[in-house]
């Protein structure tokens, strides 16, 4: 797998290259660039399979570089310091990132995932979704990418009624009554949907507060009644966050 590294700090490039040589032997680094314009030119010229892309760079960011390309024949792994909004946007688009300083185990895992065959059209949709979120942070119709059998499905997070754990799967219950079954555990989605206001109320449930019509004590404990009639249990561990979200805390 041919790779290009784009990072404004050459020491970071050298460090990542050395890690790849030692721990990811299937990756061949065919180019290195220290700014967005160099990186874009190198990607066009050398046609890599994978790009390691620093987000925070002077003049133009990694996101700016992607916007300038407009077509994506490659997979991308973002490299970033802790930038909460950028990470949220990347997660929403089901793309991969590594935090600085890079952990070897996380690097290996990200490269292994990148080795899997992904159709170009799916990569393009994911990156387009990411760039839309970054460019329009206050937009109400942001989408999140859910991994499905034939790529990714993009949904509006505000149309999620609740998420329900089912062993190593997650059911996305939507406001139009559709259920989308995803072959990943509930914990994989908690931070992504939290960015849109959804809250954990039970080990097996994450709920959208905007659709709660009642919070009350039931025979088996406390529960939330949702618009539409679904009843969602609330456990003691999550009582505080539910109370605070609903404005019931003292």
Which terms would index this structure?
250 residues; alpha/beta; Rossmann fold; OB fold (Dihydrolipoamide Acetyltransferase, E2P); five-stranded parallel sheet; five-stranded antiparallel sheet; 8 helices; 15 strands; 34% helix; elongated
Walk me through the structure.
The chain is an alpha/beta fold. The chain folds into two domains: 2-135, Response regulator (Rossmann fold); 155-245, LytTr DNA-binding domain (OB fold (Dihydrolipoamide Acetyltransferase, E2P)). The chain has helices at 10-23, 36-46, 62-69, 84-92, 104-115, 120-135, 187-194, 239-245; strands at residues 2-6, 28-33, 50-54, 75-80, 96-99, 144-148, 151-155, 160-166, 169-174, 179-182, 199-202, 205-207, 212-218, 221-226, 231-234. A five-stranded parallel sheet has the order 2-1-3-4-5, with helices on both faces. β13 and β14 form a beta hairpin. α2 (36-46) packs across α3. It starts with a strand and ends in a 5-residue tail after the last helix. The mean pLDDT is 92.
Topology of this structure?
Layout: E1 2-6, H1 10-23, E2 28-33, H2 36-46, E3 50-54, H3 62-69, E4 75-80, H4 84-92, E5 96-99, H5 104-115, H6 120-135, E6 144-148, E7 151-155, E8 160-166, E9 169-174, E10 179-182, H7 187-194, E11 199-202, E12 205-207, E13 212-218, E14 221-226, E15 231-234, H8 239-245
Helix pairs in contact: 2-3, 4-6
Please provide the ordered H/E string of secondary-structure elements: EHEHEHEHEHHEEEEEHEEEEEH
The structural class is alpha/beta
Instruction: Give the overall form.
Output: elongated
Main beta-sheet annotation: 5 strands, parallel
Radius of gyration, in angstroms, nearest whole number = 21 Å
The number of distinct β-strands equals 15
- Mean pLDDT level: 92
Q: Class of the largest domain in CATH?
A: Alpha Beta
Quickly give the CATH architecture of the largest domain: 3-Layer(aba) Sandwich
- CATH superfamily assignment of the largest domain? Response regulator
By CATH, the topology of the largest domain is Rossmann fold
Work out the helicity level.
25-40%
Treating each run of at least 4 consecutive H or I residues as one helix, how many helices? 8
- Which percent range describes the beta-strand content? 25-35%
Number of domains: 2
Low-confidence stretches: none
Give the terminus-to-terminus CA distance: 57 Å
């Amino acid at each position: 797998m041919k790779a290009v590294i784009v990072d404004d700090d050459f020491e970071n490039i050298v460090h990542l290259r050395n890690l790849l040589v030692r721990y990811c032997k299937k990756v061949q680094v065919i180019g290195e660039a220290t700014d967005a314009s160099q990186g874009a030119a190198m990607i066009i010229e050398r046609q890599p399979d994978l790009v390691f892309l620093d987000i925070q760079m002077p003049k133009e960011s990694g996101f700016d570089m992607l916007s300038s390309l407009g077509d994506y024949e490659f997979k991308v792994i973002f490299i970033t310091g802790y930038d909460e909004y950028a990470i949220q946007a990347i997660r929403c688009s089901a793309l991969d990132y590594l935090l600085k300083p890079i952990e070897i185990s996380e690097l290996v895992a990200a490269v292994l995932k990148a080795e899997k065959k992904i159709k170009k059209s799916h990569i393009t949709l994911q990156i387009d979704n990411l760039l839309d979120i970054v460019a329009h942070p206050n937009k109400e119709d942001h989408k999140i990418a859910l991994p499905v059998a034939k790529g990714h499905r993009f949904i509006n997070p505000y149309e999620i009624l609740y998420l329900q754990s089912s062993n190593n799967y997650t059911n996305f219950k939507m406001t139009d009554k559709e259920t989308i079954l995803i072959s990943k555990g509930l914990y994989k989605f908690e931070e992504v949907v939290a960015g849109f206001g959804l809250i954990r109320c039970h080990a097996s449930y994450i709920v959208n507060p905007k659709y709660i019509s009642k919070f009350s004590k039931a025979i088996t404990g406390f529960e939330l009644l949702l618009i539409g009639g679904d009843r969602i249990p609330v456990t003691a561990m999550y009582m505080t966050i539910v109370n605070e979200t609903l404005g019931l805390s003292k």
